[in-house]
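Quick check before the chapter quiz. The format below is the same one you will see on the exam, so make sure you can read both the input and the output lines.
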Amino acid sequence: MTPRQQNDRQLIFDNEGIKAFALQLKMIRKREGYTQSQLAFESGVTLSQIARIETAKINPTLSTVFTLARTLNVPLTDLFSFELAPKDK
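Here is the expected output.
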């Protein structure tokens, strides 16, 4: 890959996937009896970041997702238990 091709690459932000993850996280957080503040405190993830994840404003890193799953004491697969529409070609 040439330097120009590398500069032409765009960040991937899958709005549908991020929104589905946000809804799933919020549902699990509530099911497990956590407020956003409690989850933030116990996980070490900032409250503003929790809020931005749950409103699909940001794309959380895998490390953040792992931390949230551990804090909520749920299998990682629970956070990804949702369907995505196939990608248009």
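If your answer matched, good. Residues 15-31 form the longest helix (17 residues).
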